[in-house]
């Protein structure tokens, strides 16, 4: 047999890219929602609560600023943030279910490959 011209003997036939695992795209989406979107809502809500408590403290100590404006903003924004967080958690549940299904199918297909 002749030699294959232009091919190095010790070169791997596998591409340099690592293979993605089953459900990896949903793992990434899950992490993005949890770490980016929900965290922002929680930080924003916490910030408003801290400002409101500080303003009420200033009012209690007879310091001139009035906390009513901050209280009103907080009372309006917190329910909106709670709804957004609830929506994101529902989205996370769907992603978790899809990820579980992808892994199950991937493992089933992997088992069939051995047959």
Question: What is the structure about, briefly put?
Answer:
With 115 residues, this protein is mainly alpha-helical. It is built from two helices and no strands. The protein is rod-shaped, with a radius of gyration of 27 Å.
Task: Please describe what this structure looks like.
72% of the residues lie in helices and 0% in strands. The protein contains two helices and no strands.
- Helix/strand class: mainly alpha
Order of helices and strands: HH
Please outline the major beta sheet: none
CA gyration radius, whole angstroms = 27 Å
Oligomer: single chain
Q: What is the number of independent domains? A: 1
Strand content: under 5%
Shape: rod-shaped
* Helix count from the secondary structure assignment: 2
Poorly predicted regions:
none
Helix content: over 70%
Task: Provide the residue-averaged pLDDT.
Answer: 82
| Number of E strands | 0
Question: In angstroms, what separates the terminal alpha carbons?
Answer: 32 Å
């Amino acid at each position: 047999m002749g030699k294959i011209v232009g091919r190095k003997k010790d070169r791997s036939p596998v591409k340099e890219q690592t293979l993605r695992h089953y459900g990896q795209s949903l793992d990434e989406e899950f992490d993005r929602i949890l770490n980016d979107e929900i965290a922002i809502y929680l930080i924003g809500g916490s910030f408003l609560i801290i400002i409101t408590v500080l303003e009420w403290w200033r009012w209690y100590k007879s310091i001139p600023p009035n906390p009513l404006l901050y209280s009103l903003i907080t009372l309006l924004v917190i329910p909106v943030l709670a709804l957004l967080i609830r929506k994101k958690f529902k989205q996370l549940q769907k992603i978790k279910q899809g990820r579980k299904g992808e892994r199950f199918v991937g493992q089933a297909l992997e088992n069939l490959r051995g047959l």
